[in-house]
Amino acid sequence: MTDTPSVHSQERIVTIFLRLFTGQKLTKQALADEFQKSPKAIQRDMMQITSAITETNLADEMAIVQQPKGSYALKQVHPTTLTDVQIQTMCQVMLASRALTHTEMTALIAQLVSMAIDSKHVTAPIKSDLVAYHGVPQTSMLDKIALITTAMQKRQILEFTYFRDTQQVTLRRRPTALFFSDLYFWMVTDNDRAYDDMDVAKLSKFRLSLMKQIKVVGYSTDTSQDKHFEAGEFRHKTTLPFFGNPVTLVIDYYSDPQYIVDRFPHTVVAESDDDKPSWAMQVHRITIQANNGYGTKMWLLQQAHMVKIISPLSLRDYVIERMRWALAYYDK
Questions:
Q1: Among 76, 133, 85, 137, which Cα is nearest to 106's?
Q2: Domain residue limits at 273
Q3: Phi, psi of 172 (to 5 degrees)
Q4: Same domain, 176 and 125
Q5: pLDDT in tens, 48-68
Q6: Which of 119, 130, 251, 295 has a 20 to 30 A CA-CA distance from 193?
Q7: Which helix (H) or strand (E) holds 328?
């Protein structure tokens, strides 16, 4: 720098830079009024900050951007802060997930809100959700997530007691993946075509909220399962977190096909030759790359009169049989 700023001006420059670094947009006149300096003095401060960024080889990472009406902002290649809109959106998604205990969720929301420039503006839209929040888990999820994540990285074998329905069993598994779906966090120990049914002892996917007394009991040298489960691809094949084998599901759908496309990205929509019922607004032949697991079966049953399964016949027969069971309840 050509000039050495005074102590007071150094404090002012640091204050201005920290504000810019946290994402604030500053105006020359407002800064001049606050620090009781001329606009030219503030302009020199900005030049000092720009010079410091250049001299510390950070010019490729950040730069002072002068905007209209004498305002300034710090443009960062890799921003270290979130905007207020981003924070608000994250809070809404997190609260809707109900994935954590009340204590864990409120602490996370508070940390996010503390990063906001205008915290009141961020909290206003989420206040009702926050007050009424009721997390699904009854015990800490973050502790379990930390333990399982470490086990995945170190190829550790975990022992835990698993409770489901009326079954309780102590198992040993090596976790290979961790994902969230439909209210719950899940630990995976095999691929998405593995056994996923009623016998707990044969499971390879476990709900964290049902896992108790988790501890490390050993290490595995097997590297074949390091990338055995792809959560992103799995989500494309089912709307609920159940494993199964890949199938091409063909249905006639008697409503807006966008509902299907939003849930199954790899979907082909065409016109259907089926006669449209009097109550239906439209009908489309839809081909879905799905799996044949329990999640897909549950989703099809949820559609009731909105869907007719064309193929595969195994899923068609499954749904028809369950519908008959349901009708039998009302025949009594």
A1: 133
A2: 231-331
A3: -125, 125
A4: no
A5: 999 888 888 888 888 888 877
A6: 251
A7: helix 313-331
Domain shared by 181 and 203, yes or no? yes
Bridge partners of 80, per DSSP, are none
Looking at 170, 190, 219, the residue that finishes a domain is 219
- Using the CB atoms, write b or e for 232-250: b if 16+ within 10 Å: eebbbbbbebbbbeebebb
Cβ proximity of 95 and 133 under 8 Å: yes
253 and 297 share one domain: yes
The pTM score is: 0.74
CA distance linking residue 88 with residue 116, whole number of Å: 9
Q: Using one digit for the tens of pLDDT, what is the confidence trace for 225-280?
A: 666 788 888 999 999 999 999 999 999 999 999 999 999 988 999 988 888 888 88
Task: Say how many domains are in the chain.
Answer: 4
Residues 256, 315, single domain; the answer is yes
Q: Nearest-CA neighbor of 296 among 242, 233, 235?
A: 242
Judge whether 245 lies within some domain.
yes
Is there a single domain that holds both residue 104 and residue 51? no
The beta strands (E) that lie in the chain are given as 26-27, 62-67, 71-76, 156-164, 167-173, 177-181, 184-188, 205-207, 211-219, 246-253, 267-271, 284-291, 307-311
Quick check: is 99 in a domain?
Answer: yes
Nearest to 31 by CA among 12, 55, 50: 12
Residues 236 and 195 in one domain: no
Q: What's the rounded Cα separation, in Å, for the pair 131 and 103?
A: 12
Span 39-44, mean pLDDT? Answer: 90
